[in-house]
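Hi team, as promised in this morning's meeting, here are the two structures we talked about. I've kept the exact order from the run log so nobody has to guess. The first one is mostly here for context; it's the second one we should focus on when we meet again. Sequence first, then the predicted structure tokens.
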Amino acid sequence: MKKKFKLKDFFNSLRVRIAALILVLGVVPCTIFAFSFMAVYEKRSVDSDVTELVAKGQVLNKQIISSGYLNQHESELVDDQIEMLSKSYSGRIMVVDDTLTIVKDTFQADEGKTIIWGNVVKAFQDKTTSLYDDENNYLVVTIPIKAEGDDTVLGVLVLNKDMNYIDTNLEYFQSLSIILLIILYVLMIVVAVVFSYRFVRPLHKFGRAVSDVDRGISQELVEVEDYTETKELSEQMNSLLNRMRVVDESRQEFVSNVSHELKTPLTSMKVLADSLNGQEDVPVELYREFMADIGDEIERETKIINDLLSMVKLDKAEATLNISPVNMNELIELVLKRLKPIAEKQHVELLFESFRPVIAEVDEVKITLAITNLVENGIKYNKEGGWVHVSLNSDHQYCYLKVEDSGMGIPQESIEHIFERFYRVDKSHSREIGGTGLGLAITRGAVSLHRGDIKVHSVEGEGTMFDVRFPLNYISKEARV
């Protein structure tokens, strides 16, 4: 079925976000640079013109002072220099004497008039000033006129320059920038699309490989080593797949074994019942023997069903826990009392050592189930004349329970799997003693629900020791958060 296109999914796509990031990192700086360049160009042009006008004004200043132009108001050489400079800048030059009277105006519009302008006044205070009007495109520089070595300001030189060339150049640069930016945008879009596809391609490859495994198309491990991250993901996924395959194989084996275990007692009961029904005048002794056998088979069937039900209950939410203060010493003594007949039958000695009274907040039913499974395993997988030692201790925070036996032990290669569901170390022996492969999984589940942990130490042929630790005061998930 074709997946429906969603705009939200499109924008949440990693490929789209990578492409957008590349565009932002490429386009934004270039755009800022283009506009900044024009602003910098305008400022640098104005600064350069001011410097040039001041330099020209200084030269003109010397000629005005040496010729006595401010007093005589006539000097052909000075007039020619002023007119030439005015034409070269397409502007206007005025000479103002110390009475603020304009003695020379290249526009011949204001000669003889008095000028009162802030920049002229500042020039009489021996300050060179400049004014750039970007709206009307002109630059005005005022330069004090004074003799060399004398700080007395005798007049002011006002130089006005036409700055239309800046607008002309800016329009050219702007047109060129727009063309270049359009080309750049197109290139960046292409680069963003290509690179985003290349960046995301390993993830799609990873997804297809996982999908193929999920649909059963491929049994190969996922191998996407384009990036360090995809390599790590592949390794983690392969580890998960391997565990899932192990669990699936164990589950299939469990289903087969449980089917056999459930069927065998039923078959035995049917055979025994048919034998009784097929005979007339069955002796009481034989009748009792057959009924006892049927009872054993029913008990065996019940054990398998109870283990399955316990596993299902442990899979339920934490809310199913019934937490209450429990005397752990009395609880363990009760468990050992119940299991004592089984131990005596196996000729296994049960020992209990308590270092101090221990009260813990636990679900009594589930923690009892966990302890029972550990002790019962120690009895069943033990040797004749062996022992099972249970010890109880605590500190201010945790309860410590240790169950040690002198049994057959666990092979090193099996230790890391014994808490997995449906896993059995010795399948033939487990079947003989009625094991279902769920006992230790149930135990670990019960301990985990109490925020505890369980560890195992074993030497094959010498025995096994389980260390259990859980908090004395139960802490729920909500309280921990």
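And here is the second protein, the one for discussion:
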Amino acid sequence: MSRGVNMSDHSDHRQRVKARFRKEGLDGFDEIHVLELLLFYCIPRRDTNVLAHQLLEHFGSLTQVLEAPVEELEKVPGVGEHASTLISLITEISRYYLVSKTTNMEILHTTRECGQYMVSRFMGRRDEMVFLLCLDAKCKVLCCKEVGRGSVNSANVSIRRIVEMALAVNATTVVLAHNHPSGIAVPSNEDILTTRKLAVALDGVDIMLADHIIVADEDFVSLVESNLYRPEECRMIV
């Protein structure tokens, strides 16, 4: 007679893990148990510890698991639509939460504040994306919108579209931001050249490009702070 899995023991284990989280939070958990706990909520009657090990072995870290595309997650045996959707949802919700928090920052006086405001919008992004932050004369945030996907010098990022968006909200100052998914926030020569071209185009309609922020992971680099772009010099170009 086959003994099989004792479902009562398995249920007790789940309850102990949940109770530990409710009491202590995740600080004392390792990556395996964080992922095991998450999988409880999409895989009701299986040992999720085994699947957690398989996912971490396949992707290498919890961060890489959470940022993996759903189609890659589903290549791991035992990961179906419900599990892949839940895992992907974590990063999306985290970014939504951080963006929601920074939205309360209505006045941005410095490059550092602008950079902090922008970083959350790139959390977990696997592709290059470009955002435009528009401010009024008192540095109040008017909007922050995606203006392209791909590098800032690619055909997917239109200088004309950026100018039109800034004009549409009556911005007096804008900050451009894009990410380097490679994790290295070093500006390229193309980043610098495109920044200057955009600054000249915006100056033609009396809008100042205050800075260009490049984000990598949770860090960012300002072209102004790096002395790679000076707004006043672009205003003197004819």
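Starting points for discussion:
The longest strand covers residues 141-149.
The chain has a mean pLDDT of 87.
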